[in-house]
Design goal:
Elements (H helix, E strand, L loop, with lengths): L1 H25 L9 E2 L4 H8 L8 E2 L3 E6 L5 H14 L4 E4 L7 H5 L9 E3 L4 H11 L11 E5 L8 H4 L5 H24 L2 E8 L1 E2 L10 E2 L5 H5 L2 E17 L2 E18 L7 E7 L3 E2 L1 H13 L5 E2 L2 E2 L4 H10 L3 H17 L12
Parallel strand pairs: 3-7, 3-10, 4-5, 4-6, 6-7
Antiparallel strand pairs: 1-2, 8-9, 10-11, 11-12, 12-13, 14-15
Helix pairs in contact: 1-11, 5-7, 9-10, 9-11
């Protein structure tokens, strides 16, 4: 065991050194906040900012859009991120136009809905004006992350819609309101180092034609322009499990697996992606995701934590990780392996300018 531990420590040191040296050549110094919030998924955290922070994650002071079709885990991700901020004693404002957040659902992510600033706004200005009024002042702990959440922007109306106006003017007005409100708000969330995360529905664009953009998000182009980070949720697949009851086998869908792509990023590099596993009565299953990543990446025949074999069954492996309190070791194994893979793709070219 001592020899194995020394070998793991040596590998970790080699990988960290390699990453550090390559980052000096290829990645400019990140000038944003050093306060980071986890999404609840180790692999997604790394895909977002693994080259900036050891464990990756969402830096504060930015606007994040999580977009995709219905049923891909957008609301789950918002609640998980909000819960992680609250665990760090941060303040939360949660806008819920569709009134989907309930106490039981929020509790699953460690989010106490009784002590957050909760609203059910109708219009675009209602959301963003309240954000500007709420932003934590000078008395707030500067070391603590704070967050604003909106689920979902696609449900917001304009004053024109509420007055029963219809047609092209309505769409133009919505886009204009998003642009105006985002321009006023984004500078303040950066100054106050507040993390703002919004979900947005993708709708089919029937007028796109065979060569146009088949899907679009409501609200024009402003949200995509002002967002520092855009995460696209796609390719949901059912997670099924089987149980034998009274000699008969039964099958149930217990969750989904979704692929999350870093569609746009000013935090680190875009176009990284991660698979996340969401169980209906549990939330984001980070253990399952990490175990599958290590097994797939190493082409192993069994699930492992370090040198310890956990068998071929994913359910048995998860149980052993939890029983033996191996969650943190599994996470560190995942980070080391991810860095090892990522470092092999760094460009070794001489820096421009001959520096």
């Amino acid at each position: 065991m001592k020899r194995t531990k020394k070998r793991q420590e040596k590998l970790s040191a080699q990988v960290e050194k390699k990453i550090k040296n390559n980052n000096k050549q290829t990645t400019p110094e990140y000038e944003g906040s050093d306060k980071v919030v986890s999404t609840g998924s180790t692999l997604l955290d790394l895909a977002i900012s693994g080259g900036r922070f050891k464990e990756g994650g969402l830096p504060t002071g930015i606007l994040v859009e999580i977009f995709g079709p219905s049923g891909t885990g957008k609301t789950v991700m918002l609640c998980q991120i909000a819960g992680n901020i609250q665990k760090q004693d941060g303040q939360i404002m949660f806008h819920d136009p569709e009134a989907r957040l309930n106490k039981q659902f929020a509790k699953m992510f460690g989010l106490d809905s009784d002590i957050i600033e909760y609203t059910m706004p109708n219009t675009v200005p209602e959301v963003f004006s309240s954000v500007r009024e709420w932003l934590p002042g000078e008395e707030a702990d500067i070391k603590t992350p704070h967050g604003v959440f909106a689920d979902s922007l696609a449900a917001l109306s304009t004053d024109m819609e509420l007055e029963k106006e219809e047609g092209d003017k309505m769409g133009m007005r919505r886009a204009k309101e998003f642009s105006e409100e985002l321009r006023k708000t984004c500078r303040l969330i950066t100054q106050k180092e507040v993390l703002m995360v919004c979900s947005n529905q993708i709708r089919q664009n029937l007028d796109a034609g065979p060569y146009g953009i088949q899907h679009k998000s409501p609200g024009g182009e402003a949200l995509g322009f002002y967002s520092s980070l855009r995460l696209r949720c796609m390719s949901p697949q059912k997670i099924k499990t089987k149980r034998k009851i009274k000699r008969k086998e039964h099958e149930r869908v217990i969750g989904i697996k979704a692929t999350i792509e870093v569609f746009k990023s000013s935090v680190w590099k875009p176009h990284r992606s991660a698979e996340i596993y969401i169980l209906y009565d549990y939330g984001i299953d980070d253990i399952r995701g990490n175990l599958r990543f290590i097994k797939t990446t190493t082409s192993d025949t069994v699930y492992r934590v370090g040198e310890q074999s956990l068998g071929k069954s994913i359910e048995d492996a998860i149980q052993k990780v939890e029983e033996d309190n191996l969650e943190n070791e599994l996470k560190q194994n995942t980070i080391e392996l991810w860095n090892e893979v990522e470092s092999s793709f760094y460009d070794k070219r001489k820096p421009r300018g001959g520096v």
